[in-house]
Specification:
It is a single chain. By secondary structure, this protein is α/β, with parallel strands linked by helices. The chain has helices at residues 19-25, 29-32, 62-65, 85-97, 110-123, and strands at residues 6-10, 44-51, 73-80, 103-105, 127-128, 145-146. A six-stranded mixed sheet has the order 1-3-2-4-5-6. Strand 4 (103-105), helix 5 and strand 5 form a beta-alpha-beta unit. It is globular and about 35 Å long.
Length: 151
């Protein structure tokens, strides 16, 4: 596959179900102060997304237009998984291990979320705003999961 399906775009191309609002309400500024936090630098915060998409996924410009979060611009690294769990697993591993994202956001669907959420939980990477209402995401042991849809 290479990087032909990889897209690095400003966060303005992602908004769905209040995902960014959920992140902001977490009080992430405490964790963002740590210099060793993967995906967080003095200039930006990098999120990862593995999802089925064609073209822009939406438009969110408010955070970056307002100077980002504590001066850090928001960015998303996206890989197309075609709604296939095996591709979603490969993408999620790449997002965490290679791209060093702070959080994986906006997974689309139950089968791909079921395949990738355990990877993010083990890596202690926030799994935010999956586009599924699946009950397994509400397991109290998964403190890194932030769901924005009801079951």
């Amino acid at each position: 596959m290479g990087d032909m399906h990889k897209k690095r775009t400003p966060i303005m191309h992602f908004v769905r179900n209040g995902t960014i609002a959920a992140l902001l309400t977490l009080g992430l500024s405490v964790n963002l102060a740590k210099a060793q936090t993967p995906g967080v630098t003095g200039e930006k915060i990098v999120f990862g997304q593995s999802a089925a998409f064609e073209g822009p996924a939406g438009a969110l410009t408010a955070a970056n237009k307002s100077g980002g979060i504590n001066g850090r611009m928001l960015e998303i690294v996206k890989y197309d998984d075609g709604y296939e769990p095996d591709r979603a697993i490969a993408n999620t591993n790449k997002l965490i291990d290679q791209d060093k994202v702070f959080s994986v956001i906006g997974a689309v669907g139950t089968p791909t979320s079921k395949a990738t959420q355990p990877i993010t939980t083990e890596a202690k990477v926030p799994f935010v705003g999956p586009f599924t209402g699946a009950g397994f995401l509400r397991d109290p042991k998964n403190s890194n999961v932030i769901s924005v849809r009801a079951t």
